[in-house]
Protein 1
Amino acid sequence: MQVDTLIHARWIIPVEPENTVHENYSLAINEDKIEAIIPGDDARSKFKANNEINLDQHALIPGLINTHTHAAMSLFRGLSNDLPLMEWLNEHIWPAEQKWVNPDFVSDGTELAVAEMIRGGTTCFNDMYFFPGHTAEVCANAGMRAVVGLIFIDFPTAWANDADEYLVKGEEVHDAYRHNPLVNTAFAPHAPYTVSDEPLKRINVLAEELDIPIHMHIHETAFEVEQSIEQHGKRPLQRLKDLGILSSRMLAVHMTQLELNEIEELAKLGVSVVHCPESNLKLASGFCPAAQLGNLGVNVCIGTDGTASNNDLDMIGEMRTAAILAKAVANDCTVLDAHTTLRMATLNGAKALGLDESIGSLKKGNQADIVAIDLEQLETIPLYEPVEQIIYSGNRQQVSDVWIAGKQVLKDRELTTLEYSRLMDKAKEWQEKIKER
Amino acid sequence: MQVDTLIHARWIIPVEPENTVHENYSLAINEDKIEAIIPGDDARSKFKANNEINLDQHALIPGLINTHTHAAMSLFRGLSNDLPLMEWLNEHIWPAEQKWVNPDFVSDGTELAVAEMIRGGTTCFNDMYFFPGHTAEVCANAGMRAVVGLIFIDFPTAWANDADEYLVKGEEVHDAYRHNPLVNTAFAPHAPYTVSDEPLKRINVLAEELDIPIHMHIHETAFEVEQSIEQHGKRPLQRLKDLGILSSRMLAVHMTQLELNEIEELAKLGVSVVHCPESNLKLASGFCPAAQLGNLGVNVCIGTDGTASNNDLDMIGEMRTAAILAKAVANDCTVLDAHTTLRMATLNGAKALGLDESIGSLKKGNQADIVAIDLEQLETIPLYEPVEQIIYSGNRQQVSDVWIAGKQVLKDRELTTLEYSRLMDKAKEWQEKIKER
């Protein structure tokens, strides 16, 4: 049989079925889909490929899914650090956003972020930012898969002035991309403390009608919870539940403040939790009980948050932080083992986004979103278990090749759809402008 | 004036004086020492160099000092993960050590570790392992600076059978290297629970006589503390204090279990604490109160621990984990700011090892232990503050060049004193043997 691409890999880690590592297997890609994953010898006799690739020191994994980003904020990478959260927001990030955020900023920042993500093995991201139509456009052009957030916030911004405008503009973006194979949308009401009850109810209805997820920061800090009790007489999760907005549609991001009954409720309602360990640590937000959530049946996925608070979009590093931090938080070094952690960053993310029928694992019929990691480097030798090596010793610079929907977007570490030198020049231009502030 | 090497750098971060970043400065090296750090234009007129290097997108920092390693264990990298601590030790690590540890294992494992450390910007490490003479020999040959631990443990091992033999063999290693410019020694009694009172008293006397540090795991886990209370009627720190062994000579590693009065005592006695955040997380040992220790006047430095429990020797990654974790532990995002964290991984380490008169900062007269980091890469752009960028976005693969005692041991990412392909072959040979177990 003729196929477009045939990859012979030292290891293939499909994520589904669980805890599986195929050695010396091959993966066939036809058009945008995975055609087969079978032993190398069988593949060589069965398939004839336009493009045959030997990756004999590499592991193939499903493309990583970063379930919480503010991609355009890449242009604010490292703008200010080591500051108290409210000072950081009030005196640095928000003024910078007020001054700089416009369609060009979003396009250029997103392009930089997409390049960083592809180079680090991320093939899909769930974003929340202003001018989501520009985010979508960049992704469509770069061959990057994304769920762009139709952002909503109670106060006026450069993107919209009031509730109606946020919703109308959001729906326009949704409509423009509803048949795009790479770009999906989600509603993205910013947080319980920045979105009031009425728009939340409207968003909930619209999300059901359009059948898209809802992406929201929830219980990020203790302060948020205290403030809600003062203002609403209840914790944010309870308020959201009373509004009817907690369901399997919801991606609840951060969740550092949780009581046992809340975790049980999340499991029952099918809410997904997006764990952003490095952002939570760096901003001293608290510790998300990632292992406990998983053990009690909550679908937990992993996000980096924006570069302004991380300061990178490195999902391999984030998996490692998630895996080791969870052990200390749970006081149990068996939790978030390597396979579980990889699953959180792939299939669980796909499930949260409603995309697990097509991405998140390597199997016949799925979209060909694939990442190759070169494990034969001095920092990952000797090698006893490839999945454990990726999680505990892997470095994103070992990502050699990336395919999204069958198209190779990283080839031996070279971007194929974006121009490195132009991205660097653009980023430096913004750097000089923003520095002037 | 004629000098050996003149480096023109975009940034020079000397660590001492504090919070300083020189832009467009140059650093002159003569023989093994730093001759000058002055503005680039002055340097060009003042010095004539045999070797002139332009690093116009790089930051120079003092070589990183990894204050806790078991270097040879690199050959056990990722051998087993995600297991309960005692099962991991009893059923995996200790049997593997019993079977494999011999002089060849230590030489080959240390060589691999040294290569990894140099490629990651580490120029000095404080080690604890068997056959320290072989560790020393590898370092002397590779041009790596090290403090090799004269290990002591109550039970017999491949290295020594009883207290006398441990001490005699340790002193032999000390004597053999006492005039070596790169290799220093420290006593390394393993831990309070593996070394009894009598040998600790002898080690304390010998350490004073030889004027060398003492390197010991202390308060790594809650279990260790409980066990000591049962067996000795007191916490390990109190027992060590009563034995008279707590002083500015002591590097106390891990320290996840600390009460306020103990921290105050450590500060008073001048004990240094070696913080190993990733090992502590991965083994679910607990949280070292790094920020509180520093605020109360304790000299805190950073170590990776061995690759079997980390699983790397990446000090740039370890600095980042230390910096972000400390904020969440202290519930204060201003602690362990980027400059403080870099200082912990350089000058504080030198101080703990009694070497701060010659290494740990970039200044005239110091040993030329220097690391260049290329910051003009897509993952570290835009760039607002170089030190913050290194700590929060830096990747060890951005380390381009490394000098130790004036000798360039990494040149545009190529090792100059060790052969990459031979190291890979050796590591694979060990991998195949150890896998058979």
Note: The domain at 64-352 of chain A is CATH 3.20.20.140 (TIM Barrel).
Protein 2
Amino acid sequence: MHSYRVAIVSIGDEVLNGDTLNTNAQWIATQCTRLGAHVVEQRTIPDSVSAITATLTSLNPSVELIITTGGLGPTHDDLTVAALAEFFGDELVEDISTLEYLHQYAAARGRNMTERLRKQALVPSSARVLPNRVGTAPGLLFARREGASVVVLPGVPREMEAIMTESVIPWLTEQIGTGGYSVVRERVLLTAGVPESELADRIEPIRSQLPAEVDIAFLPGAMTVRLRLRARGNVDSVEKTLDHATALLTPLLGTSLLSDRNERLVEVLQRRCIEQQKTLAVAESCTGGMLGAEITSVPGSSAYFLGGLICYSDAVKIHFGGVRPETLSTYGAVSQQTVEELSRYIRAAYGSDIAVAISGVAGPGGGTVEKPVGTVWIAVADRHGVQARKFLFTTDRQTNRTRACAAAILMVLERLQSD
Amino acid sequence: MHSYRVAIVSIGDEVLNGDTLNTNAQWIATQCTRLGAHVVEQRTIPDSVSAITATLTSLNPSVELIITTGGLGPTHDDLTVAALAEFFGDELVEDISTLEYLHQYAAARGRNMTERLRKQALVPSSARVLPNRVGTAPGLLFARREGASVVVLPGVPREMEAIMTESVIPWLTEQIGTGGYSVVRERVLLTAGVPESELADRIEPIRSQLPAEVDIAFLPGAMTVRLRLRARGNVDSVEKTLDHATALLTPLLGTSLLSDRNERLVEVLQRRCIEQQKTLAVAESCTGGMLGAEITSVPGSSAYFLGGLICYSDAVKIHFGGVRPETLSTYGAVSQQTVEELSRYIRAAYGSDIAVAISGVAGPGGGTVEKPVGTVWIAVADRHGVQARKFLFTTDRQTNRTRACAAAILMVLERLQSD
């Protein structure tokens, strides 16, 4: 029983030269892996007929499916469609349903049908058209019995995801389900507070006891390390295999283990606050709202998150954050005293059970000898009082802000634990 | 004169199966493109000796340089290093300076040198060691006169970027500069308010007047479209070529053109606010702090940004946002009246020249027939009064929040323009 093998090809000069971050490949890979397919390679290639046909030829013998994104849409010269027609020996024909859809699309926006738009209704004769309900260029499916099948998608992420979800995933689910392939399942354990190499040393003694088909990957994040357990095998037994592996690892991870159900750090925060019926408010200086944005990125966060203050300027810290002018002039904005006053005041003013305040030197400028770039003070106020801690991160502005948000969440989790 | 061709290989099962977003490839590609190299392919491959050697063999004939990331570090079995030794026919030798560094690294963290750590000092005999000053596994450079050179880097982004910046980029700059290769230069024009296909139609008439070596790519973003002009050629003339192309395009883009110097939308906002000496404050409901985070991601934002209110709950809108309880009960939180009251109040309370308020239904829940998911009201208050506008975005929470932030910035820019 071998796996259903997939290759993902991203077509686009703007991805190749670094102008655009390739989120499509990750999204598609995640969907495929969830369905039990095995992504064996990803490639990014230029917008050229020769590159496209050479890549399809090269990958064809070693996979069941090639999924391409990009090279379709109103400002491309339809190179991808031309290359596919050539690869499969097809003619180009006008697809009626796509033509009708494009007429309605143009009319709804008060525009005429243009030559450029009309060209997007031309498809290779052996392809099945996959409707694009959020853009103009349709997707294509070449379902083949011999050699790799090919799915062709637009590069715009929303359009690609819509076509994948509506048309490709159901087809792929059926291919994998009825073809007798092995499946892959995962379990992700979220840990914090123990460095990656120490975690590796901790689990080393039991590695030989783990089932042979379980693979462990260490995925470091901001202030966290995820352990990704993956097992491939028979659909009826893989979950039990993962349960067994998780049970072996859990005691070795101890208090560093925050979650065993593939949660983000902020989802652990939400779960624990809601379980313990605690509300939360924030006061953010150097993070500027990033913590609030992270918290509210999770649907349902209104069940515990009230909001907070973006106190970027010192004046706002004083007028709306309860920080005394003398505190600022004596200790500065990046200090234990300032974050303690902020968190205490916000907790009282907003009426939340917990309040967390962050103030630091994000960089690249603003550092001093005593408070170099990367210095961040964080305070958490709850019914027991206030605790503050100083961190020293790095020299990179984005890293400092991201780590400060993670550190703030970890400090709140600590207080919830000991409440 | 041909280009210096580069292939980027990302090694890692966690990238292949979608668990991890591949930001390394984009970062490296951007650096290479800036130096004038031509990224001809990117691949993501599994953590296996056979995949690594097969990929190096496959790419070797067609590029000057292969850059790999991943497969190095304390929890990998050093497969990458083993595969390279095999590919180049090297022995593994212990690098003294790396060994010393690892001793100090362990000691500084109060740990012993372990066997796992020590193994990272083993390097192929023909490699030049590239020091890793932020992690443990060193990078490697195989500089070859015949066949592709190979650079091997760890997968952790901070470590990879540090080694690239300190060791690889200087070496690569020299290779390209002394090898008589053509260079690539770019100009990025940021536009808003005109759909991609209309922009394409607008510039169509002058496309034939553009210099032949200029390539234009349309890169759609949240509420914006970037036009990326790229020219390859002689280092002395490419910038003039781009100036000429930009001058031809500018009149056709009209008021849709926000920037011709490769700026992000929020950087345009910062530049214009500082030029016009206007301060800004925000009130964010559904975006939860994302707009403040975006604004403060730019160094120097304290010159114009004061801070604001994350008014996620209705109570916070009333108690700290100046929204009247009757307004909420009559019109609801997502309404023209609510955002007008918020923006007016925050402007007065914070003493800013401009205040922007955002309130919407981010989704996936919370939508109604009158206010479906994706409905967002945004108001901007300045000395002339308040203007509010309603948007209807999509069904995706993240997209709605991201677009709301972009729409808010565009509304502020509009007010600055007409001030």
Note: Chain B touches chain A through 98 residues (CB under 8 Å).
Protein 3
Amino acid sequence: MKATFYEGQHTFSVAEKELQTPAKGEVRIKVAYCGVCGTDVHIYHGMMDKRVQIPVTIGHEMSGEIDAIGAEVSGYAIGDKVVVRPLDHRAEQPSDKGFSHICKDLKFIGIDSPGAMQQYWNVPAFTLHKLPTETDLQLAALVEPLSVACHDVRLSGLQAGEVAVVLGGGPIGMLVALVAKNAGAKVFISEVNPTRIQLAEEMGFTVVNPAKTDLVEHIKAQTEGFMADVVFEVAGVQPTLDVMTEVAGIRGRIVMVAIHGQAKPVDLFKFFWKELKLIGARVYEPEDYEKAIELITKNELPFSSLITAIQPLTNIQQVFENIDKNPDGMKVLLDCQN
Amino acid sequence: MKATFYEGQHTFSVAEKELQTPAKGEVRIKVAYCGVCGTDVHIYHGMMDKRVQIPVTIGHEMSGEIDAIGAEVSGYAIGDKVVVRPLDHRAEQPSDKGFSHICKDLKFIGIDSPGAMQQYWNVPAFTLHKLPTETDLQLAALVEPLSVACHDVRLSGLQAGEVAVVLGGGPIGMLVALVAKNAGAKVFISEVNPTRIQLAEEMGFTVVNPAKTDLVEHIKAQTEGFMADVVFEVAGVQPTLDVMTEVAGIRGRIVMVAIHGQAKPVDLFKFFWKELKLIGARVYEPEDYEKAIELITKNELPFSSLITAIQPLTNIQQVFENIDKNPDGMKVLLDCQN
């Protein structure tokens, strides 16, 4: 089998590797597709060299089929289509209060242990979610990021008829917007990148370019002063932090999806004044995976528009180099089947 | 009747004024006691000269009895003990979504219109809450700030058995701590002022002085690593903003009680990582007043310990000067009866 390895220094290798028999409690998956996540790009940029164990196979946005089954695994058969929820919560403690998806000693599979950018992947069976037989395996590589979006929208408490503003139209922002729209919200996307604006508009969204249009005034006019019920901060930059508290209406909920590496100024007065809520949201819980699988399997939303390119696994080096050259792109999948 | 007036320039006057017949929909209250709020001190300091209409009678933390009743007021009789919920929401709009207590065009009675630091006070009947006949009118002057605390605790969703950390042991912090403890929480107060520490300890609270003890390590040890379920940020300073995200456990809720006049650095990464919630809370709703009246009337909590002094209304100038000289004090009441 072929496997890829991040070697440090912006470099991936591709090597032949022996197929491994799945250990007790594990299955071996024949990986179909694996998407490139922003975190994977961070790893490629060397930003996580202290955390990953170089050389390491990365990747966690995948789909595949069960190829072999280890001892003490029940409920799965060879050939089952699956996706992996890449959270290893086996070190969970009582003080995690049952929130295993964000437990203090959580290990992220594909970062802290080997990932899916290889032809075959051995994983613990507790990470699996079964896909219906009719699910498209290309689209199923979007289940993991889509689950993030499902989690964000679920924690926001979004109700049909509410107004949602998504700050940032990258892959996660687009998925959040799709899930919010599917839940019956009136969705606005705020994005400055022309290529992403065009894509979002093609997908049927109302997009505001805050560099050209006053976002707050626009939302005010479009909502008769009600402003946003829910704001998703996905962009992770100071201008979106500044606007998130402006664009939210009374008792608005702001979901913090973006990762802010350092403390940043927030208008806390507006939280007090309008009784806003800030809701931190990280990864997903099992029900978010089930919701994402349902949406992907139904395939009624324009998920395929988010797939910018599909490249052979062995092109991994070029794929990551191209992502750096083309920051407008959305989701690139590695085809791990050949 | 005697009335007091803020005249600007750190100056109050006391003057005789004609009793006014209550207008339609209003009652006249014979004011018993009126507490001095931090906002009143801000006004005295000239911080709100642009908002108040000098000369103005301020004050909103009051108790009293109905003295006269205007046309079209029902359900009240002369002699009824009452407190006023000083929110005039008559300019409420649909886009306020029914949250009248924080509606965009809210007028605060005692700031935007005359307040209670006078012997008789005419107010709209919709602001009234009736007190039981047995309620102590001195303690009842605490109903307004206690309602703030009831609102904060209610919005936090605090459950019996949870751990609450109150950052700041001033009057509102102490009331929040009392309400949280009464709701069955294990309460810690973080405070640096020795006088306030002593008072809080006399009231039965566990107090941590973060200038001497590492608050985060202390809470960690005391909670077996669970940390706080709910944090109340009442102090309004950068160190409490820095610690609030540290001291909160997984899915902890942080209630923003303090008023932060400008944007300040917040560790948003911790909101993401631990899925924290920040909950803005402002003033109160009718049910918070009812809860506060119930607590004050039962008088099972050490409310009287929070009353630092009771001074005649005519001493108002000296009262405000003394508050500036003695920042350790808690609540000073003006006796408006003579």
Note: The mean pLDDT of chain A is 97.
